[in-house]
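Risk mitigation, structural track. In case the binding assays with manganese (II) ion fail to produce interpretable data, a predicted complex structure has been prepared as a fallback.
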Amino acid sequence: MRRVSLTQYLVEQERKLHHVQPELRLLIEVVARACKAISHAVGKGELADVLGAAGTDNVQGEAQKKLDVISNEVLIEANSWGGSLAAMASEEMDEPFQIPNEYPKGRYLLLFDPLDGSSNIDVNVSIGTIFSVLECPPEVTTPDEASFLQPGTRQVAAGFAVYGPSTTLVLTVGHGTVGFTLDREVGSWILTQPRIEIPVETKEFSINMSNARNWPAPVKRYIDECLAGKEGPLGKDFNMRWVASMVADVYRILSRGGVFMYPADAKHKEGRLRLLYEANPMSFIVEQAGGAASTGTQRILDVQPSRLHQRIGVILGSREEVERVASYYAAAR
Ligand code: AHG
Ligand code: MN
Ligand code: MN
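Fallback model:
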């Protein structure tokens, strides 16, 4: 089998399609290298004293785990010196991080969720890292929050790593979605899924059922119909999965289809997931794999962000199911 590394994939994309310039390639490679380091720390677990609480809160008032903080530091350090970036923003930092003056600044902005699935760290369930790349607006030399407030359609690249039974990296640069697996001995990302396509139909849904009493009517209607199975209006039996790490749930949907939902509800009025470094990169990846992503009333990638740490309702996955849920929202209006 011809083994194609991440570097080779990116170089060939540039040769064929001229859309991964060296600056963007370096940026993606550096992020991927940081994910290797995080994967290593995750794999050590108890042995390296990386589990448990950090004793601090992030900007959203959530208790930080040690690995949230470590992963954030790894990504910041790795991405400071390369010269591709004008600034970075992270779930774990209130304000954008400026590139230190000793290093040159580049044309891109990087956003990340350094450690997704924090509640799963200490129980040894798959977790991951999510990232999104935007262009820095022209003329901006010191990017502030406003520089990052661009709709998801403006992303030039997005990806996520899953630290699971194997360590994987899913990536889009806007020409389809591809997957790599980390060869741990060699330390190299190898292209293992050259073309990821989400089946348009599905029989699997993914939602935190403990929020059922808070759901809006269209979500309740859809889940009731899934639960009704063959005898219900959808005419088929459904299966349910909820890992509580978005990276793992989305990875499963990319592999075998399904619909993932964390809608805005009576308790999570704006939604639970963050628009700029969770919903947007995942929606870009899912759309590039032939799926769809909606808030229920709008395509996620079209949402004009108003705050760096803004939350949003998310319904994504197999196109037909996402469209069905969106049609229930439309009917309820
Ligand atoms: P994070 O660990 O970055 O805060 O994100 C966790 C997110 C997402 O990964 C997952 O789908 C969801 O929160 C889980 O929410 P519940 O705890 O409500 O199941
Ligand atoms: Mn997250
Ligand atoms: Mn996180």
